[in-house]
């Protein structure tokens, strides 16, 4: 059997041809963001760390042909007077759109999702133009947000193709088996240092 070679590009792992990283919202928070916040080992190095609030989305690392890209980044708060997050390069700003929505599994809220749209600086005027670039921010909430290191969030960056082009990774409320570790992960415990390992696979007869 030929050994699969993993190629690391820009801090993230490039998948073999034909493979796509397409996690559900629960999987993204429980198996990636939660371990990241606790400085615990991740399932893989496929999500790179990158400051999304430094430059224009066109400069973000990774394959621009990918419809959706994921990044770890420290969360930024929206300015109270302007309701936006300016990027360091001065090329524009990110603005939250819509309402924040909870990510729920097993009857518990352990994440918050919000969408941000990118507005590009118009060099010929003082106004900014709304672009097709958007990103969905996922951060910890509820019992999962206690005793974590830093303000880590995970972002899904994508480019809208039209007025109905917003693409979200839909929640699968029925994935109870894969999320049973939520019940066993008690952040409030003084003896807990991170999330538990994934649940063992079930037999075909179950």
Automatic annotation (TrEMBL):
It comes from the Eukaryota. One of its GO terms (molecular function) is DNA binding. This is NAC domain superfamily. Residues 15-160 form the NAC domain. GO terms for biological process: regulation of DNA-templated transcription. Residues 185-206 are annotated as: Disordered. Residues 194-206 have a biased composition (Pro residues). InterPro entries: NAC-dom. Coiled coil: none annotated.
């Amino acid at each position: 059997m030929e050994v699969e070679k993993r190629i690391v590009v820009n801090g993230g792992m490039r998948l073999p041809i034909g493979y796509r990283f397409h996690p559900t919202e629960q999987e993204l928070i429980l198996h990636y963001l939660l371990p990241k916040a606790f400085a615990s080992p991740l399932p893989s190095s496929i999500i790179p760390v990158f400051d999304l609030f430094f430059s224009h989305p066109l400069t973000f690392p990774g394959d621009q042909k990918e419809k959706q890209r994921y990044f770890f980044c420290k969360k930024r708060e929206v300015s109270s007077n302007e309701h936006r997050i300016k990027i360091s390069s001065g090329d524009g700003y990110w603005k939250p759109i819509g309402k924040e929505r909870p990510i729920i599994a097993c009857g518990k809220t352990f994440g918050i999702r919000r969408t941000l749209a990118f507005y590009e600086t118009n060099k010929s005027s003082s106004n900014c133009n709304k672009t097709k670039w958007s990103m969905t921010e996922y951060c910890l909430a509820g019992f999962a947000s206690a005793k974590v290191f830093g303000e880590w969030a995970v972002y899904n960056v994508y480019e809208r193709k039209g007025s109905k082009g917003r693409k979200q990774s839909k929640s699968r409320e029925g994935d109870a088996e894969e999320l049973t570790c939520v019940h066993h992960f008690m952040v409030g415990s003084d003896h807990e240092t991170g999330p538990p390992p994934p649940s063992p696979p079930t037999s075909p007869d179950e």
